[in-house]
């Protein structure tokens, strides 16, 4: 086994049914357990976040007692911004905000895991999604150049009383708090 296929085989062996949902020539590069919030429903989904050479996706496959599948993906060429966020009201978790293709995805995990995902995602975008690649098939004829994604870090300071987590516990709804971004760094990839 070569050094590149060994981590891929390890990921494919650990995540049941993942091989069936991979695209042609897609190779898993990195995986981390996290909470995926794709903004499409009312709930966040605890899942394995899988980074491949073509996509970033949240994945859960359960076959017992009944078969269930969660697969929400975002292709690497469509990613426009990646922001690592630290909310002061969440001491354990950090958040990765990924936007692209008209969507915003929030991924929450402990600090070390989210930092590793941030570094792996940045590396994968630089290596597998060059900026000259079109995001949609119909743009091939326009020769549209896509700018490199913007990477940044944010520290969001707000009290727990104004946080969305408190609103879930107290009011069973999720309003967006007015937060102050105290530190933001941004750079082009």
Molecular structure report:
The chain is an alpha+beta fold. The protein has one domain: PH-domain like (Roll). Helices cover 19% and strands 40% of the residues. About 14% of the residues have low confidence.
The radius of gyration is 18 Å
Number of strands: 9
Number of helices: 3
Identify the strand order in the major beta sheet. Answer: 4-3-2-1-7-6-5-8-9
Helix content: 10-25%
Name the structural class.
alpha+beta
Mean pLDDT: 79
Concise synopsis of the structure shown:
The protein has three helices and nine strands; from the N terminus they run αβββββββαβαβ.
Which labels suit this protein?
189 residues; alpha+beta; PH-domain like; 9-stranded mixed beta sheet; 3 helices
Helix and strand arrangement:
Elements lengths: L4 H10 L13 E10 L7 E8 L2 E8 L5 E8 L3 E9 L5 E8 L2 E8 H18 L21 E8 L6 H8 L8 E9 L1
């Amino acid at each position: 086994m070569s050094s590149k296929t060994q981590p891929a085989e390890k990921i494919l062996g650990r995540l049941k049914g993942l091989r069936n949902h991979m695209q042609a020539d897609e190779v898993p590069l990195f995986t981390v357990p996290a909470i995926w919030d794709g903004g499409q429903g009312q709930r966040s989904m605890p899942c394995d976040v899988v980074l491949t050479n073509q996509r970033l996706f949240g994945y859960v496959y359960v076959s017992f007692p009944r078969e269930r599948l969660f697969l929400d993906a975002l292709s690497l060429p469509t990613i426009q911004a990646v922001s690592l966020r630290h909310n002061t009201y969440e001491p354990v978790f950090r958040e990765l905000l990924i936007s692209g293709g008209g969507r915003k995805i929030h991924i929450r995990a402990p600090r070390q895991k989210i930092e590793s995902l941030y570094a792996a995602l940045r590396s994968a975008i630089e290596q597998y999604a060059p900026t000259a690649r079109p995001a949609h098939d119909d743009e091939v004829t326009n020769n549209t150049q896509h700018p490199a994604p913007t990477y940044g870090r944010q520290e969001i300071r707000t009290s727990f009383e104004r946080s969305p987590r408190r609103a879930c516990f107290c009011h069973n709804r999720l309003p967006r708090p007015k937060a102050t971004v105290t530190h933001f760094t941004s750079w082009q990839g």
